Amino acid sequence: xxxxxxxxxxxxxxxxxxxxxxxxxxxxxxxxxxxxxxxxxxxxxxxxxxxxxxxxxxxxxxxxxxxxxxxxxxxxxxxxxxxxxxxxxxxxxxxxxxxxxxxxxxxxxxxxxxxxxxxxxxxxxxxxxxxxxxxxxxxxxxxxxxxxxxxxxxxxxxxxxxxxxxxxxxxxxxxxxxxxxxxxxxxxxxxxxxxxxxxxxxxxxxxxxxxxxxxxxxxxxxxxxxxxxxxxxxxxxxxxxxxxxxxxxxxxxxxxxxxxxxxxxxxxxxxxxxxxxxxxxxxxxxxxxxxxxxxxxxxxxxxxxxxxxxxxxxxxxxxxxxxxxxxxxxxxxxxxxxxxxxxxxxxxxxxxxxxxxxxxxxxxxxxxxxxxxxxxxxxxxxxxxxxxxxxxxxxxxxxxxxxxxxxxxxxxxxxxxxxxxxxxxxxxxxxxxxxxxxxxxxxxxxxxxxxxxxxxxxxxxxxxxxxxxxxxxxxxxxxxxxxxxxxxxxxxxxxxxxxxxxxxxxxxxxxxxxxxxxxxxxxxxxxxxxxxxxxxxxxxxxxxxxxx
Length: 548
Hints:
Rossmann fold; GMP Synthetase, Chain A, domain 3; nine-stranded mixed beta sheet; globular
C-alpha cells in the first residue's frame, strides 16, 4: 500500500475532523490534504521529482507532516535530519543523501551551510526553504519561505504517486553515535505493512487524540505520526518534550494516546507539579526506544491507573516495532507467584509481533536454545531495503533477508525476550562475557542511585574490568518506599560519602550478581549523556571515563 493513501483515506472518511494541533494552528484532514497538494505542486514547479531527496531539519512541526506527504506524492524521498547533529555528523549525512531541496528552521541554517560546504556542495538559494520566520517579512539571502510555497499550487490533488510497495519513500539516518551515520532505506511497505496489521483505519464514530513528542527524524516519531493519520486520530504536536508543556497539553486536549521514552516518563512523574494535572483521559501509553528501569514502570503503573501500557521494541532498520509487551502483562494482579512472574516480564521486551519473524542466533547464525544469549535477527515485509549508497554496511546488517540488529538477548520458555545489551557494549573479563544491562538494572534498584551506566575499562590481568558510572539520588531513600530494603548504609541518605557509597554499591551488586559481574570501580557523575531518545551514549562515557 502506498503511504499517500493513509491521508486520502482519512480525508475521505473524516474530512472535518481535526488532523493536527500545533501551537494554535488547527487543521482538519481536508485542510491538511489541501496543504499537501499545494506544496506538492510548488515543489514540482521547482523541479523536484521521483528519486530526489527532500531533506528537512527542524524540530517537530506541522510542516514536517506536510512535507512528507507532498514528497510521497511526487515519488521523492523524504530525508529528516537530526537537528541535534554536530557539524561533522551533518556533513556526513549531507554527503550521503545529496539533497535536491532543503526545508530548514532558520536557527539551523548556519550549521547546515557549514555542513554543505564540507559535505555535499552548495544548494542554490531557491532550493532552500525556511520553515519559520515572519510570514510578512523579507526572506534572507534569496531563500524561499515555506508560506510562499503554501500560497501557491492547486489545492486539488494533481500529483499521484506511481511508486510500488517496495520503492524507497524515506531515508532515515541512524543516530551515528559511532562511526559514519547510515541512511536506512524504508519503503512504502515498511510503513504500510506495520500499520495495516496494528492500526484500525479512521472511524467516524471513534475520536482519539495522540500526543506526539518523539522527534519526526526518529522512526518511532514518524511511525506514530503516520499511524495517527491512517487511524484518523488528531495529532497534538510538541516541538520538543518539556514536562510542564506536556502535562498542560495532555490535560487541555484530553489526550488519549502518548508515546514516551523512559526518561520522559520519569521526568513527568518526578516533576513537583505532576499531580496538579488531570490525566485521566490517557488510555494508552506506549514506551520504548531505551531500556525501562523496573522502578520507573512500576511507579508509572500506579500513577496512571486508567492507562494501558505497551512496551514496543524495534529499530530504524526494522521500521519500528518487532516485539511488544502488551497491556495485560502490565497488570500486577494475582497470586504472589503470578505478580512475581509479571514483575520479571516487565524487564522484557515482550514477544514477537505476528507479522514478523524474530530469532535469536549465535555468532554462526544458528538459533540458540531458550535461555542462551544471542543476537536478535528479524525478517518480514517491513524491514529496511538497505543502507543508501553503502553496500558494504548493507551486507553486514542484511543477510539472506534477515536484519541483524546488533542487540543481544535471550528468550525464556514462554517466548518473552530479554535484552542483554548491544554486542559492541559487552564487557569481556577473563573470558567471561558481561551484559552491561544486567549490572545497570541491579545498580538502579538501589535506593540511592538515580541513574547508572556500565562500561568496560582495560585491565592487564583480566582484559577488561567493569566500571559503573552512577548518578546519585537527590532525595532521601526513605522518600521512596517502593524500593527494596538494602544494606544499612543506605539509611544514611545523602550523608554517605562517595567512598562509602562506592563500597556499598559494589557489595550490593556482589550479593545479587555473579562475582565476576560486579563493578570494580564506581565513578559518580552529575548526569549520563543521552541522545534525544534517552539512549545512553556509551562512546562518550568510554572517552571520558574509560581509562584504567
